[in-house]
Amino acid sequence: MAGYGWTPELDELFAPLAEAGLLPARIVRVDRGQCDAVLADPETGALRTVRFDTRRVGDADMINCPCTGDWAAVDLHAQPMAAVTALLPRSTAIIRKVAGKRSDGQVLAANVDTVLIAASLAADPDLGRIERFLALAWESGAEPLVVLTKADLVDDADFIRADVEAVAPGVTVLVVSAETGEGIDVLRACAPGTTVLIGQSGVGKSTLTNALVGAEVMTVQQAREVDQKGRHTTTTRELMALPGGGVLIDTPGLREVGLYGGEGVDLAFADIAELAEECRFHDCNHHTEPGCAVRTALADGTLPQRRMDSYLKLQRENEWIASRSDARVAKARLNKWKAITKSMRAAGGPVKR
């Protein structure tokens, strides 16, 4: 299982579960109460993929439910089918807000080392969306890596890369072409361990996956010539072994990238955070306060207004998520208190806070 990311630390963590007769497996695909997971055959040691029932670990919770990349304890002898009985603690997790007005979170992938953010050079990269992906990646605890695909279709790749590097402080930005092989070897070297590939439909994720895996494992559809927008080729998150070691998780194109709170925004906008440290007041809101280094940078063009607007927008989203989370906690406490009160009254006892 070492090729799939199993470590001595995981072996030690799993020891009590092994004593109970369970086996370690890595989830490679999840589908409606079931999952496919790879494990070492207890008799031969050969790796094989088995389908498991995941309902024992509660897949109603969209964050704590089994997901691609999870390490699981499985029971091959469970009836009526083999089952996942527990999940190991996650080292990292990519969590986004679900689509729409709900504030719930959805886990996209777990135990990831590198978040590979793909953007196409065939159209002007959406810098705001890249910033959003970077915030999502930093918040996961994994290392972000931006890959500009379809380099064979443009002549100004280096100029575009410079623009992207300006909104990705501290992040490596690579230019690649899956068609010609340009940059693919460098990309493999920069993404060891477990890598998850995210991006919009049409940016070339499936083609890039095939290039990294070294086989036609994903169906490829052409982006529309008018606007370079693509259709969903990948329909589920799937983990695949790479020929040189490590694994890759391919994901469906993300139309909405809602953030789910945390410090990812500050990490994605580290340049603004550094400027803020130079402000005269430590609680500067960067509006009208004197000695504001951020407003000075905006005035002299050092900090583009577009980037500041993007930062403020993502901050507002985080504040909204935080307020909704606080409201959920308060509601849960109230419901618990109501249940206790009702129970005590039914029993005829005193109700004390």
From TrEMBL:
GO BP annotations listed: ribosomal small subunit biogenesis
Limits of the CP-type G domain: 102-257
Transmembrane segments annotated in the record for this chain: none
Any one of the GO CC terms: cytoplasm
Main location: cytoplasm
Co-factor note (free text): Binds 1 zinc ion per subunit.
Residues that bind GTP: T149, K150, A151, D152, G199, Q200, S201, G202, V203, G204, K205, S206, T207
UniProt-annotated location(s): Cytoplasm
CDD domains given in the database record: YjeQ_EngC (cd01854)
Binding site for Zn(2+): C279, C284, H286, C292
Keyword tags: Cytoplasm, GTP-binding, Hydrolase, Metal-binding, Nucleotide-binding, Ribosome biogenesis, RNA-binding, rRNA-binding, Zinc
Needed cofactors: Zn(2+)
A GO molecular-function descriptor: GTP binding
EC number: 3.6.1.-
Domain EngC GTPase: 110-255
Subunit structure, interactors included: Monomer. Associates with 30S ribosomal subunit, binds 16S rRNA.
Function per UniProt: One of several proteins that assist in the late maturation steps of the functional core of the 30S ribosomal subunit. Helps release RbfA from mature subunits. May play a role in the assembly of ribosomal proteins into the subunit. Circularly permuted GTPase that catalyzes slow GTP hydrolysis, GTPase activity is stimulated by the 30S ribosomal subunit.
Similarity-based family: Belongs to the TRAFAC class YlqF/YawG GTPase family. RsgA subfamily.
Descriptive protein name: Small ribosomal subunit biogenesis GTPase RsgA
Species of provenance: Kitasatospora aureofaciens (Streptomyces aureofaciens)
Native organism taxonomy: Bacteria, Bacillati, Actinomycetota, Actinomycetes, Kitasatosporales
